[in-house]
Each structure stands twice: as structure tokens, then as C-alpha cells.
Request: fold
Amino acid sequence: MTLVLGIESSCDETAAAVVRDGKLVLSSIVASQADLHAPFRGVVPEIACRSHLEVIIPTIETALRDANVSANELDAIAVTKKPGLIGALLVGLTAAKAIAWYYKKPIIGVDHLAAHLYAATMETEPARHPAIALVASGGHTALYQFISASEFELIGSTNDDAAGEAFDKVAALLGLPYPGGPSIEKAAEGVDVKPFIRANEHFQKPRVSSSPLDFSFSGLKTAVRYKIMPPHGERRILDLTETAKLAAMFQHAAVEHLISSTEAAIEKYSAKSVLAGGGVACNKLLRARLAEICNKRNLLLHLPRPALCSDNAAMIAGLGTALYNSGNIDSLELTATASGGAS
Ligand code: KG4
Ligand code: ZN
Reply:
């Protein structure tokens, strides 16, 4: 039995979790800072770092208590080392080092994006190969060929905004609260986009010239902006019905864009399994469309429950366990880096 404590602090969630054998989540605590960043409609790095500092120790203590595990019983401490806000990453890394040093436990630095990929098969059967993986979060949107938990190849990426970033920016344009993904999903609830598609009023799915496996969200964001602020006209005040309509049309176009690049990757790699992860994979429309395209082709879909899609420390502990079992252990010299990740 392997017990690993995972610590995650790369952006605006302070998280700690205890996982047994890389699969069984004994506890998973996520202290979200969304309320602190909401007035600014985006993550403010300075606020994020301060908040991580305030809650990191109680979050870790709660994770250990909920799992009914003492620090002495742990086999290793896994911590996010990249990518993310450097000050935020350092808070988690320093806490992990202190625990590792005091309790004389091995420390394992984990790549946040690789952990999102790991989460996809954490609670499902193993992937069938060839497998492709879609990661759509606030900072990244990319497609990978998934070889194993620690081996994957980047096969498509975004030329501009990440999908989650586009949801956040469009929500701000529509006057909807941060984080934008859940508020756009909520505003769009119950809106049928078919009549708008028939009337050709909908947003076109973005076209990307670099590769059918790449993404681009900035044109779609501009299209929404022009509906609200026409280039040579006055800013329109939207009523609730118009806001809901724009939210639904944006969500539809963004999801169809993610789906069409995923389908192109399925065809190109003759995939037998499709993995998905990242905060945007919480979106119900995206989940339903992924299920549809996989059912149609008889493919295995590895779609984590929403709590394992958005930022969490169970995925860090999970991948940390796989790395620990294959001897990938770091020293206390481990450092954090803002960039990089799963490529
Ligand atoms: O993976 P994540 O929790 O953090 C990063 O690593 O970035 O992803 C957060 C992103 C945010 O941009 C948020 O708006 C988006 O995921 N998101 C969603 C939904 N829930 C979260 N986007 C669309 N629909 C959702 N239901
Ligand atoms: Zn993430």
C-alpha cells in the first residue's frame, strides 16, 4: 500500500489530498479563492500568493485528518512544481519541503498538466492505445497522444487564448461573474441554439489554418465583443434574454471547436481511448458531446468526475505515486518554474 500526500497551489486553488495506491482518493480538500478574485474578473497573482500562505497549513491538516492518516504514515509528498504563478507555486513547494524534511519523506515534483492527464484514468479502467487526450483549462488548451502516465506527445495546441480563459473573458464582457465557465454554463441553461443556427445568427466555429488539431479562441471572443460593442456603434445594454442567448451561442461554438479538433485527432491517430481533463471538462455540453463522439465510434471515454477535472491535489498525489513507484524522486533542492508543462 502506498500513501501519498499531494499539494497543489499553482493558481487560485489551495489543495491537499491523500491518495492510496495512486487511485483511491482518501481525502481531497480544495480551498478556492474564486471569491477573492471575482471583483477583478481574473486571478490577481499577489492576492493568490497571500491567500495560499494563509490557508496552506490548515488545508494540509484537514486532508490528513479526513483521510485518517498521520504524516508519519505517508510514503511520499507530491507537489506541483510547474507551470503556474511562481509565487503561488513556491508556497506549496515550501510547505511540501518542510513536511518532507521534518518527517524524512521523499518529495516528488509533479507537472500540473501531466496530472490533469493522469486524472482522466485515475478512477477508470486503463486507457486503450492508441489514446488521445484533451486538456482544456484556464491556462492551457492542448491535445496529446497519451502513451502512459508519464509519457505523452503534444499534437495540438492553442494559437492564442486557452478555452477557459475565453470563457472567463466572454463572461466578463457579458457582465457575468468570475469564474466565467460555470457562469456562462448557468446563463446558457435551457437556451436552444438550433433556431439561431437555422437563422444563421450563431457564432461560426473558429477555423485554424496551422493544423486541424490546433485551437484558436480569440476570434470567437471578438465576435462576442462586437455583438455588445459594435466597432462604430454604442455599447449595448443586454437584457437577461440577450445575455443568455449570447452565452449559449458562445458555449456552443467553443465546445464544437474543442470537439472538432478532438475528432480530427481521433481520426489521425486511430484512437481507441479518449481522455479529457482540466476545468473546462466540467462543462456539461462538452461532456455530452465527448460522450456522443466516442459512442458513435465505440471508443472508451475517460472523463473524470468534475472534482477531478478542475484543479485539485488528488491528481497530484496520483501522478506522484506513479512517479514514486518508478523511482522518480526529487531532492529538497527541487525548484518551481512558472512555464513549461506536459509538452
Ligand atoms: O483546470 P482549472 O481548474 O485551472 C487551471 O489549471 O487553469 O481550470 C479553470 C478554468 C477556468 O477558466 C474556468 O472558467 C473553466 O476552467 N471552467 C469551465 C467550467 N468550469 C470551470 N469552463 C466551462 N464550463 C464549466 N462548467
Ligand atoms: Zn489546472
